[in-house]
Design goal:
The protein has four helices and eight strands, in the order αβββββααββαβ. The protein starts with a helix and ends with a strand. It has one domain: L,D-transpeptidase catalytic domain-like (Beta Barrel). By secondary structure, the chain is α+β, with helices and mostly antiparallel strands. Strand 2 and strand 3 form a beta hairpin. The protein has an eight-stranded mixed beta sheet with strand order 3-2-1-8-4-5-6-7, with helices on one face.
């Protein structure tokens, strides 16, 4: 009986390893606001999967301030994986990034201390402060079916976020294009 349990345990471990090893590797996420699509891209630049999205209700232009209902544009990375999201599952992006912070500082929206905090967070590849006048807490999340828009996040269906969440790791680059 003990031998049977050991063999069963070994088979389960092998099955788990094969599952992980055969998953496609997502090198980056590409979001097109204009096409309303999110694509998972492999290391060779090929599309692994593509999903329809909902974006911020004020769709034109990049996010600049808290409450502007815009989705950011630029280069970001996944800084947080949230399995307990109000929107099923979610992946937090490092908005505002250093470029957003520099523009916000030049416009007088944030001070030197907040600029430095955001720049440091980006250098350390961690979540930036999400409580600045520039806004924050921009996620790729579920509950996107039938949505006309979001407050600035990128919404996909619950089935899509389950797939994306399983394939994407913290640190994965995200490009958001107009």
């Amino acid at each position: 009986m003990a031998l049977l349990l050991r063999l069963l345990s070994i088979l389960l471990v092998v099955a788990a390893l094969l599952t992980v090893m055969t998953r496609p590797h997502v090198a980056r996420i590409a979001v097109s606001k204009g096409e309303r699509t999110l694509r998972l891209i492999d290391a060779e630049g090929s599309t692994i999967a593509s999903y329809p999205i909902a974006i911020g209700r004020a769709a034109v232009g990049p996010k600049q301030l808290e409450g502007d209902k815009r989705t950011p544009e630029g280069e970001y990375f996944v800084c947080v994986k949230n399995p307990k999201s109000h929107f099923h599952l979610s992946l937090g992006l490092n908005y505002p990034n250093a470029g957003d912070a520099q523009r916000g500082f030049a416009a007088g929206a944030i001070g030197a201390e907040q600029l430095a905090e955001i720049q440091t967070a980006e250098l350390e590849r961690r979540r930036p402060p999400w409580d600045t006048p520039l806004g924050g807490e921009i996620f790729i999340h579920g509950r996107g079916d039938g949505r006309a828009g979001t407050a600035g996040c990128i919404a996909v269906s619950d089935a899509a976020i389950e797939e994306i969440y399983a394939l994407v790791y913290t640190g994965t680059p995200v490009t958001i294009m107009p």
